[in-house]
């Protein structure tokens, strides 16, 4: 029997689980990065920053992070989701959708009506997920150049 999924604000005790969830999808450790994210998003207490953890039976199985930004390229305030991970063992169970819906509500409460993200064009799973959440190409286009 599947245990209930809860979506909660991240707490300092979730740090190791977040690092482990991130590690499952990458080839490099980012322990220092995650400590900095926890400091800025968990310990700061700011309402324009949201770090949520999905838990099943008290065990973290996913997380989503976002914030309100308003200064890039003259954009009015909007929500940005910059991290989303669900454990491969529980994917396709609606956890990502639950987290995305909750972060959208939190960002709306913070005063924005638009949410944005960026996705690697080769990340078909992530791109498919966000499109399934109703996200579409927005008014800004990312441009990049490799510099030597």
From TrEMBL:
<dbReference type="Pfam" id="PF00583">
    <property type="entry name" value="Acetyltransf_1"/>
</dbReference>
<dbReference type="InterPro" id="IPR000182">
    <property type="entry name" value="GNAT_dom"/>
</dbReference>
<dbReference type="InterPro" id="IPR016181">
    <property type="entry name" value="Acyl_CoA_acyltransferase"/>
</dbReference>
<protein>
    <submittedName>
        <fullName>GNAT family N-acetyltransferase</fullName>
    </submittedName>
</protein>
<feature type="domain" description="N-acetyltransferase">
    <location>
        <begin position="5"/>
        <end position="148"/>
    </location>
</feature>
